[in-house]
Amino acid sequence: MKKTLALPLLGGLLTACAGSVEPPTAAASEGLPPGFELAVFAEGLERPRFMSFGPDGTLYVGSNRDRVYALPDRNRDGRADAVIVFASGLHSPHSVFWHTIEPPGDFITPKVRPKPASWLYVGETHRVIRLRDTDGDLRADEQEVVVPNLPAGQQHFTRTVGFGPDGGLYVSVGSSCNVCREEDERRAVILRFEANGSGGQIYARGLRNAVGFTWHPETRELWATDNGRDWLGDDLPPEELDRVQRGDDHGWPDCYGQRLPDPDMGSPERCARTVPATFEMPAHTAPLGLDFYTGTMFPRDYWGDLFIALHGSWNRSVPIGYKVIRVRFRDGKPAAMEDFADVWFKGGRVRHRPVDVKTGPDGALYISDDRGGTIFRVTYKK
User: Fold this and answer.
1) 160-171 per-position pLDDT tens digit
2) How far apart are the C-alpha atoms of 338 and 341, rounded to whole Å?
3) Which pick of 13, 173, 285, 359 has the fewest CB atoms within 10 Å?
4) Tell me, what CATH number does 283's domain have?
5) What is the per-residue pLDDT across 106-150, written as a single tens digit (0 to 9) for each?
């Protein structure tokens, strides 16, 4: 379905310099490794979530409100020129992903070959749409529905979208509950579709809430974060980083971690038939977005390692998380975990909650924060 949009833009243009967020100070970089600096790229956004860079380097950001933002930095000074509402009137457009579609067929004469079409794919709670701007004003004026009927309602309403190296459209759909038997088999899964939204199938199941996923730049394997259940105490179950393959069953609601049976649901016999966690993180830290570092600004030791945003706990007796971690990869596998940016939880006060991480075209690391409405930018200087 294609339509031309007349979007309510709420004025369209917001300042990028609103003073609602505490600016970073010299102390902010004390929570990063030596040589790294953290600064505000943009602020004044409403519940910003997942991010994607467009073909021209503009950063697009989904939200847990009704809008998608465009953040241009035309002068490349490391600060967004403006916060522009790219599209609004949407239903929790948490996730965005730029994808370019090559024209079909063989064109012998270059002059008549159609140009590739770039679209911003958006995961709403109940569907996947794609948007584009045809006149260059950074406001979407075309919209098409790609996947019209994702399961919705109850818990875990975010839908993350991404295109794999195989050209397929992948969509994660979290469970409808903390722990239960789902009535709809399309919950607690990663789905795969063709680029046009056809051919939907369950790619992997047993993933309670795989909010973030990405592909290893060399092995092309799919990696996902998975948020474990609540109310098993402060230290169970572990959060997971999983290598996900077609047909995998990662165990939820019966098992967690290294095939450990859930006390309310599982059994050793059932868990023996599931895929264990590839790598474990502390319980209730809520790992969300993740990105393999593909830039060259950071020291070579960081190249190819994985950054993960820990959104932080909400039901633990001692709060934990609220930071970005680095997972060192060796021979295509996670080997060790360490703090990378731990600057937002000081003195028992949660100022910001990281959601997504993304390597920019400039090699900096961009971090979204849905508590303070901020996009941070981490750079390295020798």
Assistant:
1) 999 999 999 999
2) 10
3) 13
4) 2.120.10.30
5) 555 666 667 788 999 999 999 999 999 999 999 999 999 999 999
The angle at the Cα of 360, spanning 278 to 165, to the nearest 5 degrees, equals 50
Tokens of 271: 């868990």
Instruction: Look up the domain containing 359 and give its range.
Output: 2-380
HSE (CB half, 13 Å, CA atoms) of 5? 22
Query: DSSP assignment of 61-125, as one string?
Result: EEESSS-EEEE--TT-SSS-S-EEEEE-S-S---EEEEEEEPPSS--SSGGGPPPPEEEEEEE-S
DSSP string of 311-349, one letter each residue: ---SS-SS----EEEEEEEETTEEEEEEEEE--SEETTE
DSSP 273: T
- Which residue in 51, 31, 42 sits closest to 322, CA to CA? 31
CA-based end-to-end distance of the chain = 51
* Token pair 């040589």: residue: 35
One-letter amino acid of 207: L
Other CB atoms within a 10 A radius of the CB of residue 40 amount to 21
Q: How many distinct structural domains can be found in the chain?
A: 1
Alpha carbons within 13 A on the beta-carbon side of 355: 22
